[in-house]
């Protein structure tokens, strides 16, 4: 874990400051024969993404809606394992935004084979860094009960000043 932490903090420190340059630069780390890299490219194979979501037991969603959601997201960060010429999608997250004040992070996922190695944290840090570089100051998300402490470790607070998320669902 410490190994991953130090790798990622080195990578982060070397990363450029501007969001535009950030988009063109892909931070990478090397682990054994694998390179783990991040991308903001939203041209993602939807079947590969579905496989990743299946691996953590999420309910399937219509791919045409997933495609639309990705296209209309403000930011998409995906995480890939590269072995030789093969690339495998191992993590994903996206954010919607008003482009000025607020962004909400959705669909944070790390493949079970890669969980517990600091990669979820690294993925979230990439998200936060890029949103902050766009001067977004209010970053929110909806945490499943079992991952509240994961987000708390990244500085997210449940119910700040008693504010509650409220939901409306069709009958
Ligand atoms: C939640 C998830 C993204 C975490 O990814 P990960 O790569 O395993 O997390 P990391 O290894 O980066 O863990 C970072 C820290 O959070 C902690 N953590 C990880 N998962 C946790 C959990 N479920 N509950 C509490 N803490 C957790 C780790 O112990 C670690 O703590 P440390 O920094 O003190 O060592 C991953 O487990 C996942 O994809 N789960 C299934 C999908 C899901 O539930 N997504 C969230 C929807 S709201």
Walkthrough of the structure:
The chain has helices spanning 2-14, 19-24, 46-55, 63-71, 119-133, 148-152; strands at 28-31, 34-39, 75-83, 86-97, 102-110, 138-141. It is α+β, with helices and mostly antiparallel strands. The protein has a single domain, classed as Gcn5-related N-acetyltransferase (GNAT) (Aminopeptidase, 3-Layer(aba) Sandwich). It has a six-stranded mixed sheet with strand order 1-2-3-4-5-6. Strand 5 (102-110), helix 5 (119-133) and strand 6 (138-141) form a beta-alpha-beta unit. The longest helix has 15 residues, at 119-133. The model is unreliable at 1-25 (pLDDT under 50). The site of coenzyme A has 19 residues, from strand 5, helix 5 and helix 6. Residues 1, 56, 108-110, 115-121, 143-144, 146-147, 149-150, 153 line the site of coenzyme A.
CATH topology, what is it called? Answer: Aminopeptidase
Series of secondary-structure elements, N-terminal to C-terminal: HHEEHHEEEHEH
What does the radius of gyration come to? 16 Å
The CATH architecture can be given as 3-Layer(aba) Sandwich
Task: Indicate the low-confidence ranges by residue numbers.
Answer: 1-25
Spatial separation of the terminal alpha carbons: 45 Å
Small molecules (ligands, ions, cofactors) in the structure: coenzyme A
The biggest sheet amounts to: 6 strands, mixed
SS-based structural class? Answer: alpha+beta
* Secondary structure tally: strands: 6
Number of domains: 1
């Amino acid at each position: 874990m410490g190994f991953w932490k130090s790798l990622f903090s080195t990578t982060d420190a070397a990363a450029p400051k501007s969001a535009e340059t950030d988009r063109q630069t892909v931070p990478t780390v090397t682990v054994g024969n694998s390179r783990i890299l991040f991308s903001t490219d939203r041209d993602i194979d939807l079947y590969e993404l579905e496989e990743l979501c299946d691996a953590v037991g999420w309910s399937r969603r219509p791919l045409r809606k997933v495609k639309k959601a990705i296209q209309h997201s403000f930011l998409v960060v995906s995480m890939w394992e590269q072995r030789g010429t093969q690339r495998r999608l191992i993590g994903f997250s996206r954010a919607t935004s008003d482009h000025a004040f607020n962004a909400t992070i959705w669909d944070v996922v790390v493949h079970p084979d890669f969980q517990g190695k600091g990669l979820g944290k690294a993925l979230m840090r990439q998200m936060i860094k890029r949103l902050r570089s766009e001067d977004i100051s209010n970053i929110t998300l909806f945490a499943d009960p079992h991952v509240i402490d994961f987000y708390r470790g990244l500085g997210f607070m449940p119910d700040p000043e008693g504010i509650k998320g409220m939901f409306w669902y069709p009958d």
